[in-house]
Write the structure tokens for this entry.
Amino acid sequence: MKSKLLYLISLVVIISVVLAACAPAATPAPAEPEKKALKVVNLINGVLGDKSFFDSANRGVTKAKEEFGLEVKTIEAGIDPAKWQPALEDAAANEEYDILICGTYQMSEFLAMVAPKYPDKKFIIYDVSVPYDTCEGNKCANVYSVLYKQNEGSYLAGVYAALMSKTGIIGSVGGQDIPVINDFIVGYKQGARENGIPDDKVLVQYAGGWNDPAKGKEIALAMYQQGADIVFQVAGGTGVGIFQAAQEAGKWAIGVDSDQYTIIKDTDPEQAKVIITSMMKNVDNSLYRALKLHIEGKLPYGQAEALGVKEGGVGLAKNDYYNQITPADVKAKIDEAEKALLEGKVTVDTVFK
């Protein structure tokens, strides 16, 4: 009886093994395709190291690279304007990229000619819009333009300068006499005017370039000699000379585009002390935002967006030094001015209609 039972058990085991061996092998789940990193070319029609505009743009792209795992190549086209269009055309034709980024008004017409040739690629331009109506081919449907309401941020700078000035005379040095720089200046004048400094007490001069600190220093020193005690620099790398002039004259300056006090204080703390605030054009935030929206499939290509105080596109730097040197009543008035802009109670002058 036992031997029969053992025989039956052995038979069941043998059958089970045979059936298992004959069963079809489980099909492995297909491997998910590896996601390729988004490739971005950051073309600068100038050089890094201005501690202002282009450095801000580079910070924004770098932040996106670190957070989203992008592959980024930065190309510095140099300060010779004759090389900017060839640099853009060469990068567009020969670089491997998904998105090409460039900025400033000098590049708008060039990009309007280049972007339609590469309809499967995307382009972002900042601080200017391409002329969508006159773009050839696809009407630049693959281009996103980001603008800044620099007049709003400069309005706050003008309010601050007027409230902080002891002489009742302030100044501003622009890189060039062009619409975007004049948009800074009209906002600056309005903010000052509404706080006791008339237009004829706001000294304005243009340096004629963006990488000439010696010229910036010369102009700013002349303004300080005429009685100005605060000069707002809107001149990129030329603005370094304005800080040098303020330090030499024992006066104050207002930076631009980035929080220039914070950038300079580690390498030159004494010079940084002349920078009482900066009108920040948040190029870094805007490019980070644009790349994030692209990844999310939400970036509105084929149109321009203008970012002001409400959108975080512009504002005043309120760092530790600002808090240290700014009287409480001035801080309160700046806060009131910001609130008025946010609530639409103030309309700031602009050169753009």
About this structure: The chain has 13 helices and twelve strands.
